[in-house]
Isochorismate synthase MenF (Sutcliffiella tianshenii), 464 residues
Amino acid sequence: MITKQFHHILGLWEEAKVKASNINQPVLISYTEKVDQLDPLKYFKASARHFPGQRFYWSNPTKSHVMVGAGVAKEFTANGTQERFHGIEKEWKRFSGQSLKNQDNQKIGPVIYGGFSFDPKKEKTKLWDNFADALFVLPTIMFTSIDNENYMTINYWSDSEESHLQELMRIKEELGKGSSISHAFAPEIVKCLEMDPNDWKESIQTVTNRISDGVMDKVVLARELRVLFNDEINVDHVLENLLEEQSNSYLFTVERGSDCFIGATPEQLVKKDSNHVHSMCLAGSIGRGATLQEDEKLGKNLLTDNKNIHEHELVVQMIKSALQEVCHDVTTPTEPNLYKMKHIQHLHTPVTANTGKEVTLADLVNLLHPTPALGGYPREISMETIREVEKLDRGWYAGPLGWMDEQNDGEFIVAIRSGLLQGKEASLFAGCGIVGDSDPESEYRETQMKFRPMLSALGGIKES
Ligand SMILES: C=C(O[C@H]1C=CC=C(C(=O)O)[C@@H]1O)C(=O)O
Ligand SMILES: [Mg+2]
């Protein structure tokens, strides 16, 4: 039976075929419909059956924006340093600029999502083989929830087969029902491997010495914790735990075959919504207290601690001056406030600005990444120092991860508090901002604290 909806889908397909032959390239069709309330996690779980290893999850801290993508309608990649941000944007524009849609809702349409490695110049290891320096996906099917309104989008091409469109319709109906399979048994940790803590602390000392010599002001050094389990890690289960425990963070999951990059980050890099730009300075950390009084005391200590204020201020200055290059009305409060999550609290300064039509999302990411919250200050010398001193392959850890739509709006976060899941292994990453008076021992403890969100979601630490 041909439904009215399928008739519409076929109609757009016929229209796209004509357009494709005129412009001599395949034309993308993006069909969106409003759907009833649907739990995004159930949708994410359900999509594993048809799109194993090809799922994406994104939610902002307030959950006013949730996206779940599945399948690959098109992939956009770039490797190496040359213009990777603009390269992806340009290629996406080439297709999205010619796309056909079934409705004029400017909010919902085709979206690509993905991420960038932290530093394309760093020597690569095999660990991140499945994650290119720039990799974005236009999903086959996407669920979007914006301000509690829910939509399903299917993306197909002028050169698709009719049988493929029928199959898409069928899968869309099935996914709309969701799946509530839950996994009661999480695998157990067999072993945790880390580089010798003394070697890491020595590298902190090397950097503080250089900072004291006036070579630079700040460098962020990270370390990796490799966690081995007695069984395969279940992505759905980890995401479910993160959703429960890290409600004040952006949550993200990018599956690439048997690998999955997942995390719960509090840190936004940039959001562009028409001419409005938002960014965030997040640097300077302390733990959470067991009682309200203790917690407030810790927060107060952080707000008045000179080392942390300096670590934070370098980020504020850099983000403000980077945005001032292409924006006007760059505004921040004069003092940082506290951003609290389950295991940690940070100094936080929100930034807003306005920009002109000619400025693109890639321009903004290119200007901002890496901020001194992940790289250091000044940028070049701190990046060279990380390449030289840090004994790990960051891959997508601390890189920009996010989405862009066809109006060139979108949002990128900084992919920290994250881990790469590969079968029975998880590689977790955590870093901290090193300034002149950093103490190696307390920086080490700070990274331990930053591993906790992922360790806990993996079932690795028992919460008190
Ligand atoms: C580099 C990380 O955190 C950054 C973000 C917030 C606070 C930070 C700090 O206090 O050192 C770091 O700059 C990480 O979590 O791996
Ligand atoms: Mg710090």
In short: The chain has two domains: 4-176, 189-457. Residues 284-285, 311, 432-433, 446 surround magnesium ion (ligand 2) (CB under 6 Å). The CA atoms of residues 55 and 271 lie 23 Å apart.
